[in-house]
Amino acid sequence: MTGAEFALLLLAWAIGGASPGPATLAIAGTSMERGRAAGLVVAAGIVCGSASWGIAAALGMSALMVANAWLVEILRYVGAAYLMYLGFKALRSGLSDKPLATVQAKRGGLRSVYVKGLLLHLTNPKAVFGWGAIFAIAVPPGSDARVVWETFAALFAVSNVVFFGYALLFSTEAFIRGYQKMRRWFEISFGLMFGFAGIKILTARLT
């Protein structure tokens, strides 16, 4: 693969990561609701979850999971249930008349925010297939370990830019002011999107 082709691959990886989905919704919602620190923490959890799947794919675990469909099924049901749970919480918050500060106080500390982000990626079986697919394209058969881990490092760096960039963007004062004015609608929208994402994971064909 030439340098130009690899650059295009990284661009495609960035666009895929930045497209609306559970991870970007979690970062955007947390950053607007709780501020930059919480947004960066949930982004860190998501990045670590992504890195875990990236390492698994680099070690050939995606092929192992394809060969053992029951592993995928367990992850799929756990992931779908977790996303639906997040959707229920967001909908309940959006339908609540309590002020923003009261709703925030029940969301836990930064450790729980980190775990939320981590679980979002660890319980999404499509993540490992995404990493596996990108490795299949970027790393020719028979490549040595250096090529594999250099590819991982490049993809991981792009993921960091995308996810932490989301946290910084959606924690700006303009976004926060907009969220405070429209908190209920944001919460309801996030709840519906999380629920939809859970249903998509539950019903998707992963092979």
Report what the structure shows.
This protein is mostly helical and 207 residues long. The protein has one domain (3-203). It has 11 helices and no strands. The chain has helices spanning 3-18, 22-34, 36-58, 61-67, 69-94, 100-105, 110-122, 125-138, 145-169, 173-181, 183-203. Helix 2 (22-34) packs antiparallel against helix 7. The protein is globular. Mean pLDDT is 78; it is low at 99-106.
Short account of what is shown:
With 207 residues, the protein is mainly alpha-helical. The protein has one domain (3-203). 84% of the residues lie in helices and 0% in strands.
How many beta-strand runs? 0
Task: Name the helix and strand elements from N-terminus to C-terminus, one letter apiece.
Answer: HHHHHHHHHHH
Could you tell me how far the N terminus lies from the C terminus, measured between alpha carbons in angstroms?
26 Å
Shape: globular
Largest sheet: none
Tell me the structural class: mainly alpha
Q: What percentage of amino acids are in beta strands?
A: under 5%
Mean pLDDT: 78
Q: Which stretches are low in confidence, meaning pLDDT under 50 for 5 or more residues running?
A: 99-106
Q: Gyration radius, to the nearest Å?
A: 18 Å
Helix content: over 70%
Q: How many domains comprise the coordinates?
A: 1
